[in-house]
Design a protein that fits this description.
heterodimer; A: 1048 residues; alpha/beta; Glutaredoxin; Rossmann fold; Ubiquitin-like (UB roll); five-stranded mixed beta sheet; 42 helices; 33 strands; 38% helix; globular; B: 195 residues; alpha+beta; 7 helices
């Protein structure tokens, strides 16, 4: 190929290149960036090459870079002349034959087709591929690409990076040509200044001004450097840019060299990016061949060449003076500035350093003008930025968005939010120099200034999404460990300060931290920030300072309660299951005891951890399932049903008496202290059990006739038989707990009387007030809240409600109501305003309801209840909803539409959530939250009144049984500590010898599940649906445990 | 044709189960190679890094021998102390022979949030590698088994964040790893040896 000496040759080359990009035959281009390769793109390419060669097909095969949708890789572009380019996703080598067969018939394989591109703005040129395939969405219509503006990534994934002709075909090197032929260097610098382009490497310094410094520096030799030492963990846009479009970088640098008067450019690229190194090497060779690099570039008297240097793995070399030291053959240690590199840089010569992405913006600005560029983005931050959206979102990849786009757009619209059942907690921007932005601040526009105000930085554009499984203390520790190990050691604040900070953070994650250290860490962080020599040290404390600012409660959890909710800090947990259990049951222990055939011991161990093991064994939301490590093998251990089995094996058999005696024998000597527990629900019962076990006199006041709370009065018989609960309550009674039924506090007994009569009072009043929906028609006969409905059934007074019931809501109460109605012979329909996956009810219960014939109407909000002439319910009118913006729960908010649907029915049950009985709460005189829940110290459970503690739904709002019991257990511990002045709780459930050897083998069986009654049988009565595990299955299930509690 | 089947030069493909390749060539050959590397780089920016990278890459055990460093110092007139400073500063350079197989665990942020620390722990235990006291709990480590079969090391970030957690096994990128899949990969390499 000849050198480009004039416009004639240049244009001829462009034509030749176009014949490659839009050939006269079909073109198939495989995305072969590193992400694509990691997902099998090489196999796809080889299979295509083989088949095309074998069959002698007239198809042009190309290897292109990455289009950015990394989670959908391998991507393959298929183009038939005159048609749109179609992007196929998740293509495997085995798909190749059918892709080619379809293509030979002018078809696109439908299950692989993702989207189409009819035309593409390469910025430097506009290509029209064709119009057609109406059934396929345009690329820009897909959520992942919505709002993306590809300037930097203009060619990525579309042209072959190995082929300079394709780059020239899409308008490449035109900007360079223009600059060399008609522009004065000063006017180009003015353009860059006017464009407000800021450095994309992190600090955001104005590029035009930096260039001007270099242009004005007088020296015989000047350098420009491209910083491609992309060391921020979590950011990889530079890798993709170079891999996919190396000439875009070269063009920017050659223009930069020309206008600043530099004669040499250097690309300092990470050694860890072999493919980028390879692509760049090839691009440099081609550019030299074409006369675009070297002497007399494009036939003009301008000499410039670019060298490539591979960095050797040192994060600090991203700092410009360290990078220069590295190039000079020294360790990459930064030097004080001034002198700035523009005065005295590489080898003492004036030098300018810009990030990869900055260089990619140059050609578009030169061609389109600064006004075009400033139109994009926000006022102070013009243009776009490429972000690597990774971590706990469903769609990961590289996204190029106008600066100033809010974080919600990234996390939810583009990223698709967290995985099913998880909630996004924070986004980390800027890598080890940045910070964590909490969910509440997701409306923050992403630009240099705003991120700075939040204590974070834009950095190189890493955006790592975290969900509730990520511990923010661990994240802070992780980053400090990183900067600590990457600190060059030159200045004391960074070298010694980070060492101390790491020490403190290690203590936090191991449960040895103190509150004083939090203050110290804060001071230390500020000191390191203010006094370090270079950017590494000055920004290293950001991750700690921002997490302490926005996630202080997690630090408190680690330091005060020695708990890591996310379960990441292993030292603070026995095992992942134990950590996830609100009662912190020692699950591996009872599994092992059962495995050893010691059912009595297993029961004793279970009951001491959880005094309602048979009830929770039936109705718990089982968070342990989500944490069980066995799920990486097949499925989590069915811990809930195993402890139900153990509980049933004693509570419902003649083992009850001996075991009740064994547990009662564990009661500690009387302390002489007395405690009143208000409410005999799960919270109150749990607290009463432990307080009695600890030797206190416990009296439970309950305004209903029996103990159990929601377990007794709301959860239907078919899920939890009353006789099971009754046995548990009996065992608690055997410990000496006294019950006063029908004793409503506030009416029968006053709080003042309790205060006088007892050493401590524990309020566990639950949430018994049904929230009311204010809509027309609620006064009609046949409209009732879920709790009274369930309660009337539970107490045997079945109300006559007609033939058809509609239930409004999506929680467990809604599902319980509908299933109960079915058992009463009614037809039941659940109306829920969101989608099925958003229902808060236990999934198994929803499935069971469906099997039993319950109908569901999703995306529907109640509009009005229609009555007949006698004031009875006749129908419910519902408004269809559509999903709008994401709300604080990370779910999309339903928006009511004008479409109204009428649902004939005889009864309407409102199951839209429960709240605290506000009358009681207000009358108590205690400090309340706005929702009516009691304000307590979350570590001691103390209310605003001395000696009064509170827990359960009364402090958290309506939750579930296990959470409620967790509060009861914690309150008992704290009340005991307060009454006795010593910590006595830890020892009360100990004393079991069991194997602490790692199991040699575990059961290879899949997860055992309880048998259940068929839906035909169960709708006929109130018999319990879940039969329970068999003895053999329970024992084998216990053998599936991997024993995460054994360490070392 | 696959345009870049061998990115790392001829030595990258060798090594797997092929013990003959693990023998370092005689001094004369090695020094001749060093001379070439020096000739290629002299006068260019980043020359020393380039020379050291080339020499280490050429070594079948992927490390820099003491005699080579002395030779480079003598040939380039760069003080040996400075060369040592560079070699010990950058994560890439090794002063110890590396194992037949290298398992490199990415400790980037995305990988960390998806459990790469557990992966590192499990593979370390699997290979029976003790943490050295100075490296206890550290993210940056290089450990080689006594039999020279395996080296485990970490990298700050591979830039493959969308595939997190990522492990590189002898220059092969494995995405979406879990303990079990990684153990199987390592077992696969062990079996290769017995076949």
């Amino acid at each position: 190929m000849s050198r480009i000496e004039d416009i004639g040759i240049f244009n001829a080359m462009r034509e030749a290149g176009l014949a490659k990009v839009l050939p006269a035959m079909p073109r198939i281009a495989v995305g072969m960036g590193t992400c694509g390769r990691g997902n099998g793109a090489e196999g796809v390419y080889q299979a295509l090459a083989h088949a095309i060669d074998r069959d002698g097909l007239d198809i042009q095969l190309a290897a292109v870079g990455c289009f950015g949708a990394c989670s959908e890789e391998p991507l393959v572009n298929v183009w038939l002349p005159g048609q749109p380019m179609v992007i196929l996703r998740r293509v495997q080598a085995s798909d190749v034959e059918r892709i080619l067969t379809d293509l030979s018939r002018g078809r696109i394989t439908p299950d692989l087709a993702w989207c189409k591109i009819e035309e593409w703005d390469h910025i430097t040129a506009h290509l029209r591929y064709g119009v057609g395939f109406p059934e396929l969405p345009l690329w820009s219509e897909l959520p992942f690409f919505s709002g993306q503006k590809k300037i930097v990534l203009r060619n990525c994934g579309l042209i072959a990076p190995d082929d300079i002709d394709e780059y020239i075909a899409v308008g490449g090197y035109q900007a360079l040509y223009k600059v060399l032929i008609d522009s004065k260097p000063e006017s180009v610098i003015e353009q860059i200044k006017a464009s407000k382009l800021r450095g994309r490497g992190g600090a955001g310094y104005a590029t035009g001004i930096k260039w001007e410094f270099l242009a004005k520096a007088k020296d015989d030799r000047k350098y420009i450097i491209c910083n491609a030492d992309e060391g921020d963990p979590g950011a990889y846009m530079n890798r993709n840019e170079i891999e996919s479009d190396p000439h875009g970088l070269l063009e920017g640098m050659i223009i930069g060299g020309y206008v600043t008067g530099a004669s040499q450019g250097i690309v300092y690229v990470r050694h860890e990016y072999p493919l980028a190194v390879h692509k760049l090497t090839r691009a440099l060779e081609q550019a030299r061949e074409y006369g675009i690099l070297g002497a007399n570039i494009l036939g003009r008297p301008f000499h410039f060449d670019i060298d490539m240097v591979e960095g050797a793995g040192a994060f600090v070399c991203g700092e410009e003076t360290a990078l220069i030291a590295s190039l000079e053959g020294f360790s990459g240690r930064p030097r004080p500035r001034p002198p700035y590199p523009a005065q005295k840089g590489l080898a003492g010569k004036p030098t300018n350093i810009n990030n990869v992405e900055t260089w990619y913006n140059i050609a578009p600005i030169v061609l389109k003008g600064p006004a075009w560029f400033t139109e994009i983005g926000s006022t102070k931050s013009a243009g776009t930025k490429v972000f690597s959206l990774v971590g706990k979102v469903q769609n990961t990849g590289l996204v190029e968005m106008p600066l100033g786009t809010p974080l919600t757009k990234f996390v939810y619209d583009i990223g698709g939010g967290a995985a099913q059942g998880r909630t996004v907690k924070a986004v980390q921007t800027g890598g080890p120099s940045g910070g964590c932005i909490p969910h509440e601040m997701f409306d923050t526009p992403v630009d240099y200034e705003t991120l700075g105000q939040l204590g974070s930085i834009m950095g190189s554009g890493g955006m790592v999404v975290m969900d509730e499984d990520n511990c923010m203390v661990d994240i802070a520790r992780y980053f400090i460990e990183f900067t600590h190990s990457e600190s060059c050691g030159k200045c004391v604040p960074c070298r010694v300060g980070l060492d101390q900070a790491l020490e403190i953070l290690n203590g936090f994650t191991k449960g040895t931290g103190t509150v004083a250290q939090l203050t110290l860490l804060n001071e230390l962080g500020r000191m390191i920030r203010d006094t370090s020599l270079c950017g590494l040290g000055q920004t290293a404390p950001n991750p700690v300072l921002t997490t302490m600012r926005h996630f202080r409660h997690e630090f408190d959890d680690h330091i005060i309660a020695r708990r890591c909710r996310a379960g990441v800090c292993h030292s603070l947990a026995l095992s992942p299951c134990e950590n996830s259990c609100p009662l912190h049951m020692n699950i591996p222990r009872f599994l092992d005891l059962l495995k050893e055939g010691r059912v009595d011991d297993a029961f004793e161990a279970v009951f001491l951890d959880n005094p309602l093991p048979a009830s929770t064994g039936r109705v718990c939301q089982h968070p342990c399932d989500d944490r069980c490590r066995r799920q990486t093998v097949d499925a989590p251990v069915n811990m809930r049903e195993v402890h139900r089995f153990i509980a049933d094996a004693v509570l419902l058999t003649d083992r009850f008496e001996p075991l009740a005696a064994r547990i009662a024998a564990r009661k500690k000597a009387p302390t002489g202290k007395s405690v009143a527990v208000v409410g005999a629900g799960p919270t109150g019962l749990t607290a009463a059990f432990y307080l009695a076990l600890l030797g206190h006199e416990v009296t439970v006041f309950e305004n209903k006739a029996e103990a159990g709370g929601m377990l007794r009065y709301a959860i239907p018989e078919y899920r939890l038989p009353k006789r099971v609960l009754a046995q548990e309550v009996e065992l608690i009674r055997r410990l000496g707990v006294k019950f006063q039924f029908g004793a409503g506090v506030g009416s029968a007994v006053t709080l003042n009387e309790l205060d006088e009569g007892f050493d401590a009072v524990f309020l566990a009043i639950g949430t018994w007030k049904e929230s009311w929906v204010y809509l027309p028609g609620t006064e009609l006969k046949g409209v009732l809240p879920a709790l009274p409905f369930l309660e009337s059934v539970a107490t045997g007074t079945n109300p006559a409600l007609g033939r058809r019931m509609t239930v409004i809501g999506g929680g467990n109460a809604a599902v319980d109501s509908a299933r109960t109605a079915v058992r009463m012979g009614m037809e039941a329909t659940i109306v829920y305003r969101r989608e099925r996956k958003d229902m808060p009810a236990i999934k198994e219960e929803v499935d069971a309801a469906e099997q039993e014939g319950v109908k569901f109407l999703f995306l529907a909000a109640p509009h009005r209840i229609v009555g007949d002439a006698r004031g009875n319910v006749k129908a419910l009118e519902i408004a269809k909803t559509r999903l709008g913006q994401y709300d604080a729960s990370g779910r999309r908010k339903p928006v009511v539409t004008a479409e109204i649907v009428r649902l004939d029915c005889d009864a309407v049950v409102l199951a839209v959530g429960e709240t605290v009985d506000l009358d009681f709460a207000r009358a108590s005189g205690l400090t309340l939250h706005e929702a009516g829940t009691f304000v307590v110290d979350r570590f001691t459970m103390e209310t605003s009144r001395p000696n009064f503690f509170a827990g359960g739904d009364a402090i958290s709002g309506a939750s579930n049984v296990s959470n409620a019991m967790g509060f009861g257990k914690k309150a008992a511990r704290k009340i005991d500590e307060r009454l006795m002045g010593v910590k006595r709780f830890a020892g009360i459930s100990g004393g079991f010898e069991y194997s602490m050897e790692p199991p040699e083998t575990t059961s290879t069986s899949p997860r055992h599940r309880s048998a259940e009654l068929t839906s035909a049988v169960r709708v006929k009565g109130e018999d319990e649906v879940m039969v329970g595990l068999t003895e053999a299955d329970a024992a084998d299930e216990a053998c599936r445990c991997l024993r995460c509690d054994i360490r070392g | 044709m696959n345009p870049e089947s061998s990115l790392r030069g001829p030595s990258a493909g060798a090594g797997a189960g092929d013990t003959s390749s693990a023998v370092n060539p005689p001094d004369s050959v090695r020094y001749a190679f060093i001379n070439e590397a020096i000739a290629r780089s002299t006068g260019r920016p980043g020359a020393l890094l380039g020379i050291l990278e080339a020499v280490q890459e050429r070594n079948p055990r992927k490390y820099l021998c003491a005699d080579e460093l002395s030779y480079i110092a003598a040939k380039t007139n760069i003080p040996l102390s400075q060369i040592f400073s560079v070699v010990t500063f950058y994560a890439l350079f090794n002063l110890e022979p590396q194992g037949d197989h290298t398992i490199c665990i990415c400790r980037g942020t995305a990988c960390h949030t998806r459990g790469s620390r557990t992966l590192l722990e499990s593979v370390r235990l699997e290979l029976g590698l003790e943490e050295t006291p100075g490296q206890a709990g550290a993210d940056k480590l290089t450990l080689t088994t006594a039999d020279g079969r395996f080296t485990i090391r970490t990298v700050a970030c591979f830039g493959q964040c969308a595939l997190a957690p990522v492990v590189e096994l002898d220059h092969r990128i494995l995405g979406h790893m879990n303990e079990r899949a990684l153990a199987r990969e390592v077992e696969g390499l062990e079996q290769e040896r017995h076949e």
